Amino acid sequence: MTTPYSTTTTPARARFLLLGDSHAGPIGRAAQAAGIPFHGGPIGAGREFTAGFFDLRENDVVFRKPEAEARYRGFLAELGVSGLDRLAVPLVSTFGFSVHFVATTENWEVYRVRGGLAPGFLASGLFDDIVQAMVRDALAFYRHARGLGLRVLAAMPPQRVPGQSDPLVFRAAQETVRRALDALGVEIVDLRARVTDGTGFQRPELCEADDPIHGNLAFGRLILADLLERGL
């Protein structure tokens, strides 16, 4: 799920740079299938893009993991730019939205009272502070990109919660991240109302088969359609 999906054979000008974790995969595959020119794709797993994953170098970023940095540099080269500050197309990302890691049940045991989370905890400032601390460098990455004047769009995750994660924490944590990014001026691709059923979880036809976390190509097409409607 971390294969890059740049379209490198089309002479058309790329419409966006896609940087993210494995949730970026369906977006890239959908763009490829539709012939929409772009560069980028997944550069690692979601757990790698929460805290401590990049450093600043002047106005650019340097990813600490060599594989992620190599892919990033390759995408920039395909776009003909030397750094993030030179980017002339919108940036689309999924960083920070792999909140099933944040929602791992054992992370929240200390806040449970008689088997359940303390009343009001998920709506509290404390909860927001904890979540934002857990994804602090994802937020810092978006803040830096916005500070460079880039148009930045973030795609919210598939509404899928693996067995080791708490669904209530998942839903609250993604909302915390969404609000934080909205405050930074990041455009949020939020398809929750369109992709869920009565349970609040992702409809089966939009889920990757034999996989507890990811959306499939059909889900990627919905995200791509939203991006195109925004003018990308």
Write a structural description:
The protein has helices at 25-34, 66-79, 99-102, 125-134, 136-147, 167-183, 192-195, 217-229; strands at 17-20, 39-42, 54-57, 60-63, 91-93, 112-113, 116-117, 152-155, 187-189. With 232 residues, the protein is of the alpha/beta class. The strands form 3 sheets. A 5-stranded parallel sheet has the order 2-1-5-8-9, with helices on both faces. Strand 1, helix 1 and strand 2 form a beta-alpha-beta unit. Helix 4 (125-134) crosses helix 6. The radius of gyration is 17 Å and the shape is globular. The relative contact order is 0.16. The mean pLDDT is 93. This is SGNH hydrolase-type esterase domain-containing protein.
Main β-sheet: number of strands, strand sense, barrel status? 5 strands, parallel
User: Which geometry do the CA atoms define?
Assistant: globular
Strand fraction equals 5-15%
Low-confidence stretches: none
Q: How many distinct helices?
A: 8
* Helical proportion, percent range: 25-40%
What string, H for helix and E for strand, traces the elements in order? EHEEEHEHEEHHEHEHH
Distance between the termini: 24 Å
- What's the alpha carbon Rg, rounded to whole Å? 17 Å
Which structural category do the helix and sheet elements fall into? alpha/beta
Instruction: Estimate the mean pLDDT confidence.
Output: 93
* Major beta sheet, strand line-up: 2-1-5-8-9
Annotation, overall tally of beta strands: 9
Protein name: SGNH hydrolase-type esterase domain-containing protein
